[in-house]
Amino acid sequence: MMIHKTEAEVALMKEAATLVSKTLTEVAQVLKPGMTTLQIDKICGDFVKDHKAIPSFYNYRGYPFNVCASVNDVVVHGFPNNIALKEGDIVSVDMGVILNGWHGDHAYTFILGEVSAEILQLVKVTKESLYKGIEKAITNNRVGDIAFAIQEHTERKHGYGVVRELVGHGLGRSLHEDPQVPNYGKRGTGPKLKENLVLAIEPMINLGSREVYTEDDGWTVKTRDGKVSVHFEHDVCVKRNQALILSDYSIIEAAEKANPNLNTSYY
Ligand code: MF3
Ligand code: CO
Prior knowledge:
Elements: H1 7-30, H2 37-50, E1 54-55, E2 67-71, E3 74-76, E4 90-99, E5 102-111, H3 117-135, H4 143-158, E6 161-162, E7 168-170, E8 177-181, E9 198-201, E10 204-206, E11 212-214, E12 221-223, E13 229-231, E14 234-237, E15 244-245, H5 249-258
Antiparallel strand pairs: 1-4, 2-4, 3-12, 4-5, 6-10, 7-8, 7-9, 9-14, 10-13, 11-12, 14-15
Cobalt (II) ion (CO) binds at residues 105, 169, 200, 202, 233.
């Protein structure tokens, strides 16, 4: 069942999504080689609790951390750990909060220092594909239009692997609501989009093959071929002419640009 929000509810969801953006901005300010993903987890958890919100991933189906920190060949759901990040790593930080009963859930991939041109291009194209999907999140389109746009840009245009096993989703009072939002599919298929449906759109794109596996911890999803994967996620509200993006990359990007340890040369 798809749950359409009222204008007032959308405003509350924007607050939740923006709190996630502010949390990821904190990360963008301090991230550097030598830091561990457990330190990121603590920064994010503390920041959210200081803002009268709850880190929503913690204990979700037994998930044992505040954030997912997915480094290099980890696609999503990476456990924070005490391994120091190093120059040349890429890390997707995925964070969820509950604020006043409403969920925010979004993610951003950071690049530490110098990486190959092909990794820079993958990060660029994955972020672009997210916006191409968002462009289709308008009234009377279908979920398949979003899915097709993402797949078109990443798989067909650039030959990347689009992960099939994990998908975007509706968002609201629950972290995962209907509909599922795959990053692959056919135009004009799937559920029809109506105004004020809120979606978490989240392309997970592999440099190499699309094949992934889950580690024995039951969570960590990795690429089969060991090549890197990139993940970006926005919370968006379906509108008549243009989707309203509830989360905010502009503050994350400003902090990332100001941090000399992060590579922003692709945009
Ligand atoms: N953005 C991911 C999702 O929507 C994060 C979920 S992690 C979990 O599925 F731990 F909460 F499951
Ligand atoms: Co999500």
